Amino acid sequence: MKKKVDLEKTPLKEAYLLLNVTEPEELSVRYTQEDQKLMKSNAWDYKNPALITNKINVILEGINPTLLSADERYWRQNILWFWNHHAISCAIWRYKDKGEAAEYSEKALSYQPPGHPNKITRLLYLLIRDQLTEAEKWSRTIVSEPEKTTALHLLSEYQRGFFK
Q: Which residues have a Cβ under 8 Å from the Cβ of 11 and sit 6 or more positions away?
């Protein structure tokens, strides 16, 4: 049985209430559900403060992680990685903003936990910085699907011009 958080004591109270959950992993699951709805409808946009994903991001970024339980710190970090990972795509394809894409890719990598299986974040980081040789080398380390196909697609998109 998972332990519920004491909402009166956690700095994440606002996030829990916003997503109507009571424990850290549920917070991540519900966040991911909301994120995926927005991605599938092409409505994900870091510039829209009304989106629940952006509200959660603001809350989580504003909290000192040392005030959280280990479980809360882990899931906070994972959500912040995911938000910044999607912000990279938004900056590239919606806004054609290389500066924003570079900023979000750096933040995403800083939040990505060691051993995390996603390799696309680093690939985007390299491509945004026009480090094609390093990106191609990195892409060869991506062997599982769907990331392998995604990596090849991103290399092709880069060649056509991300920011044109």
A: 63, 64, 67, 68
Count the residues in the chain. Answer: 164
Which residues, 6+ apart, have CB-to-CB distance to 34 below 8 Å? 19, 52, 53, 56
Helix (H, G, I), strand (E, B) or coil at 121: helix
Angle between the N-to-C axes of helices 70-89 and 98-111, in degrees from 0 to 180, rounded to the nearest 10? 160
Half-sphere exposure (Cβ direction) of 107: Cα atoms closer than 13 Å: 19
Domain residue extents for the chain: 10-108, 117-164
Q: How far apart are CA 67 and CA 12, in angstroms?
A: 10
Enter the pTM of the model.
0.94
pLDDT in tens, 51-109: 999 999 999 999 999 999 999 999 999 999 999 999 999 999 999 999 999 999 999 99
Q: Is 153 exposed, middle or buried (0-12, 13-18, 19+ CB in 10 A)?
A: exposed
Instruction: Quote the CA–CA distance of 15 and 31 in Å, as a whole number.
Output: 10
Buried/exposed code over 57-95 (b: 16+ C-beta within 10 A; e: otherwise): bebbeebeeeebeeebebbbbbbbbbbbbbbbbbbbeee
